[in-house]
Specification:
Number of strands: 14
CATH class: Alpha Beta
Number of helices: 10
Order of helices and strands: EEEHEHEEEHEHHEHEHEHEHHEE
Low-confidence stretches: 367-372
Strand content: 5-15%
Largest sheet: 8 strands, parallel, barrel
Strand order of the largest sheet: 3-4-5-8-9-10-11-12
Helix content: 25-40%
CATH superfamily: Aldolase class I
CATH topology: TIM Barrel
């Protein structure tokens, strides 16, 4: 039997396999952060893929916390209603579990969409705003410096995360991933590259972990017990003197004691000076180390493209699940094709059953909508 297609669980959330659709920013919300028809199409077709879990894109907890003005948000009643309409349509046709990634861009906010160049829009330019961060240190030297968060600002951001978690609960989402990676606000607190504070939130490892842990606690308290909350962490900055795997293990241990369900392990994003060593599965060893030393379930990501590769990661105990992003965009039926290669079965809607090739006539199975 394929290990990739074995069931697994995050707290009380039962999943039919170990394939996770990773959060992928779409930069396609309206100007106020609300989901649009694009999200219905995007999430709808991925929800028919047979993956065990889909994590919605990085969703801003405040307007100031957006990467771009077109980011999805969950900070207003209008945001909540718009996303609710999308989720209702998706759930009507798919039993897939749905989680959401909550985040704050910090100093990487006020940016153009990638296809418009991705550059920072300065606060004095049309469409720009003053970003906020642990310290008044810009992401790149040519960019405008962010505003350093004071005590009132820290409380506001914590409250924004908690309020977004309550909205996620009302929407019936199955889990929350707290975004502590890719150089965004919580990662900025963790990394000595971005965090130059001299108060209780800066300096030592314990101090730099303090605010991300406070945010996690606030989200965990605001979301129903039994429904999983976990964190995505960049295991290394790929810059000497930056955040590293030892800090990641320490943070993961602290999260474990707070009821964290898993660690989604990625790398990089906090500095343009990063020197990433790319290769198939290049981030998997970090997930393996967290799993071995902390004992929490881990989700591995990073150039995982082939079914046999994903199967080996699970079979060898390197991670508990694989998380696919670009591979899923390129091949939205990746789980179908992986199941065919590995001799497994996968959910598909009945409308598509006649598409299975003759040599894989027993590939598809239908799940009832009560089997989440």
């Amino acid at each position: 039997m394929s290990r990739l297609f074995e069931p697994w669980a995050l707290d009380a959330l039962r999943l039919p396999n170990r394939i996770v659709i990773a959060p992928m920013c779409q930069y396609s919300a309206d100007g106020e952060g609300s989901a649009t028809d694009w999200h219905t199409i995007h999430l709808g077709h991925l929800a028919l893929s047979g993956a065990g879990l889909m994590i919605l894109e990085a969703t801003a907890v405040s307007a100031r916390g957006r990467i771009s003005a077109q980011d999805l948000g969950l900070y207003s009643d209008a945001n909540e209603a718009a996303l609710g309409r999308v989720l209702d349509i998706v759930r009507a046709h798919s039993p897939m579990a749905l989680a959401i990634q909550l985040g704050h861009a910090g100093r990487k906010g006020s940016s153009q969409r990638p296809w418009d160049g991705g550059k920072q829009i300065r606060p004095d330019e049309p469409g720009g705003w003053l970003t906020e961060a642990p310290s008044a240190v810009p992401h790149a030297e040519s960019e405008a410096a962010p505003m350093a968060l004071d005590g009132e600002g820290l409380r506001r951001v914590r409250d924004d995360f908690a309020q977004a978690a309550r909205r996620a609960a009302r929407l019936g989402l199955d889990g929350i991933e707290v975004h502590g990676a890719h150089g965004y606000l919580l990662h900025q607190f963790l990394s000595p590259i971005a965090n130059k504070r001299d108060d209780e939130y800066g300096g030592s490892l314990e101090n730099r972990m303090r605010f991300p842990l406070e945010v996690f606690d606030a989200v965990r308290a605001a979301f129903p017990a039994g429904k999983p909350v976990w964190m995505r962490i960049s295991a290394t900055d790929w810059v000497p003197g930056g955040w590293d795997i030892e800090g990641t293990v320490a943070l993961s241990q602290a999260l474990k004691s707070r009821g964290c369900a898993a660690i989604h392990v990625t790398t990089g994003g906090v500095s343009p000076r990063q020197a990433i060593k790319l290769g198939p599965g290049y981030q998997v060893p970090y997930a393996q180390r967290v799993k071995a030393e902390v004992g929490l379930p881990t989700l591995a990501v990073g150039l995982i493209t082939e079914a046999e590769q994903a199967e080996a990661i699970i079979a060898n105990g390197e991670a508990d699940a694989v998380s696919l992003a670009r591979a899923m965009l390129y091949d939205p039926r990746w789980p179908w094709h992986a199941a065919a290669k590995l001799g497994a079965h996968v959910f598909a809607p009945k409308q598509y059953w006649r598409s299975q090739p003759r040599e894989f006539k027993d590939l598809f199975e239908g799940l009832t909508f009560g089997q989440r």
